[in-house]
């Protein structure tokens, strides 16, 4: 099973699954082989019912669809639809948080509070909302209203774009890709990719970048900032990770999905004395809430809640036989879960009206009765505890401590209040640059291997690594999110980490929190008076799989950051499109993509890029 994962706990559970005849994503992946070549290359189209059409990649067959669309048009349209779906997912999440703040301010949401009033007031000031002598509820309502307008097209350009360096904003102006409204750009993607609308691959890609920007500097940024207002801005916190966090003698509840509105309430409900007493009555020593994927990241960032694993471990968690309930909301939840759960005693509880699963118990979650609903869910898990099939329970012992919680505010605090120590270290070459290693797992790549190889080599080369998402969970499990990991860093980065007491790999949150990375990059660029594309920074998504990752890629490159992808995007069938993404984009955006499936070579690309940027800035080494 070593070829499937580099994570020992996962390898053990893969073996257990095999013994017990449970199929996982890896078996299903094998059954899909060989995967459709047209799909892999991005050159099949079913955007209208004259089709489906396919382009022959070898040039022996059709070179265009029935309507005349070429390989580049088809692949670009498909890419745009991926971006639209990804941006929609992030932004709809953002919208839900904005709505929750609005309802909280109106006194209509149960269990929520405005936890970070300071952030509320500073954001209100950013949006030009009067704060003097007003209650936090009054301010929050106005701010939420302002945010809601950003989803439409009332204002002409997104407010948060003003956080970007002047030079970057000029790049967007010049390219004609300033995002107007968050929803608007997504809708326009769907319009442009309809049969017979936008057929120019360059024009399509430019709008894709605009849509991505409306995610990164819009929907995702709202998700992050408003979550901080509601649940608190993260500060450094310690916790534990990997499947070993499950407890044999406790009621284990895994919260899986993305939105903190649900997971925060489950965390709160699990502290309820009555429910704890109920758990003891059933013979359990307590209630153990653990996270998975990005909702796990949300609660580990703010509470140090244990995280059971990342994307490819969701089925394996159920295979432990020790999960009494897995509570899911939206995104990255495999439909296969209910089938796996059916072989054990685990209850899969869906909660979002947007996401139902055949075979799951559906407990609709809404903000008005959030805490009551959370209690009900915890009660179901407690009642399920005695149904555990003891003979099938096996929890791997692997667990690892992590330090997380590096919001922009926390990073500044760790630096003593200003960016200067970091800038000085970069200027002096102690830290060569910063790399964001983010994204998913993908059975096409040994689980976690890409994340770990890349991150280990980068820190060894004195590159500070910032992370979010499943990449961060991979590194948490490997012990890289600990100050002690400074020993694995190069001499320069290691010394800086030891002086500040921080890990060489900073966990900045869930995937919507890549907005925190954008804000940090913008602040560094502003401090140096340059564009983001001038900085010695790079992005990498070694194991990405989701459409959200495509939207992220679009806005990261659109923000001027060179980005290396470790799994191949479905565009290679469009030769001119591929050339645009990997070369041509540089002349317009100051950044481009690279595709490199070998992590060692990916590191080299990043180091070369960082060295070139240092040289251009006149920095030594
Ligand atoms: Fe999903 Fe966010 Fe990817 Fe992980 S990293 S597989 S998107 S949970 Ni966001
Ligand atoms: Fe074929 Fe064109 Fe219709 Fe796509 S839009 S299915 S290429 S005819």
TrEMBL record:
Its EC number is 1.2.7.4. Pfam families: Prismane (PF03063). [4Fe-4S] cluster 1 binds at residues 36, 44. InterPro entries: CO_DH_a-bundle, CODH, Cro/C1-type_HTH, HCP/CODH, Prismane-like_a/b-sand, Prismane-like_sf. It catalyses: CO + 2 oxidized [2Fe-2S]-[ferredoxin] + H2O = 2 reduced [2Fe-2S]-[ferredoxin] + CO2 + 2 H(+). It comes from Thermacetogenium phaeum (strain ATCC BAA-254 / DSM 26808 / PB). The lineage of its organism: Bacteria, Bacillati, Bacillota, Clostridia, Thermoanaerobacterales. Its cofactor is [4Fe-4S] cluster. Gene3D superfamilies: 1.20.1270.30, 3.40.50.2030. This is anaerobic carbon-monoxide dehydrogenase. GO terms for molecular function: 4 iron, 4 sulfur cluster binding; anaerobic carbon-monoxide dehydrogenase activity; hydroxylamine reductase activity; nickel cation binding; peroxidase activity.
